[in-house]
Amino acid sequence: MCKEGTAWRDINMKSREIVAAGLLKLGIITRKEDAAKYYPHGLGHHIGLDVHDRNVSPVLRRNMVMTIEPGIYIPENSDCDKKWWGIAVRIEDDVLIREKDYELLSTAAPRKIEEIERKIAEKGHFETYSLPELKSPKKAF
What is the pTM of this model? Predict the structure, then answer.
């Protein structure tokens, strides 16, 4: 659906249908209307000069860049089976809108559980970087 001319509202509604179907299948909800309890936000947003650029067009246009990030959040004490409590999942992809389709910009992002866990276990740049000792004639406060 991510292509020039598609209404953002339609894509957002389709995501809600898909999430509701999944939650129904898992038995987390019993009515599709209840999906909103666990999918409380929209599908995504524009990305531009500001990370959350405001949507000024009701339809997608060529060369827009969007994040597609459905999220499911099941708080403690929800009215579903306790085994689902505390789960929060948000999957984000960034797409460039083209005339007849889209280009997935986040292809290098880890997708499989093993890939994600391996990435989490890696040391970050700031964990391995050490700053030089500051030598200043002034004393700190």
Answer: 0.77
